[in-house]
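Troubleshooting log. The previous structure file for this entry was overwritten by mistake, so regenerating from the original sequence record. Sequence copied from the archived sheet and checked twice against the printout by T.R.
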Amino acid sequence: PAPPFSRVFAELDPAPAPVPEGRVGLPALSEREVHVSGSAELSARPDRARVSLRLSSRKEAAAAARSSVSRRLQYIAHIARLRAVPEENMTVTEDFSRVENTYQMEAEVCIIFSDFGKMQDVCNLLIEKLGTSVTVSPPHFYHTPEATDTLRRQVCVTAVGNTRRKAQEVCRLFGQALGKPLLIKEEETKEWGGHIDSHLSHSADSQTLQERIQNATAYASCRVFAVFEIKGKENRRNKLL
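Regenerated output below.
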């Protein structure tokens, strides 16, 4: 999207009149402000990936069907432990049914990865060792709520920083010094792209890993409006000292 329109308004009032002799107190400063709007846009790659593995076996004997799937489940768990995948990041669901004169055992293993390199190692090894006896789905990339909140905070803070730097440049142009902020207002925020934590993936199976990560990348923009106090010119002699 096109960057939002930025506006700058500076107000430099004449210096206040001196306090008449005999009066006690400081002269009241007239309002001297700079009004500035600024924006920022940031992106965040997904921080999680979910991979689903499906196993099935159909045998005439129930025990044989269960045993066939059980052995593969144990091997998958073994590989996950070797790659330091936390147990809480792996869930297993099983379904046992009778189909005509046979028994069918099905299982699905869902593994959540925060390290995408580790994810590739595990998937490649399982495909190599288990072959067609396991079906590995393409990874589904998404953002955790914590990652999304971090992106929102960072883009707001960055927009405020850009706005302050713009105000400093305006004051410097007029030979003034930027003072304290009087008002900081978040005017507009936008978010687009990225996938939330969902089992549904809208990506095509033909996409590469990097294309999937790019499609799941989240973007956020923020525009803020700020009012800063304008100080008088700095004493050059004091500045040099």
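The longest strand covers residues 177-193. Archived copy saved in two places this time.
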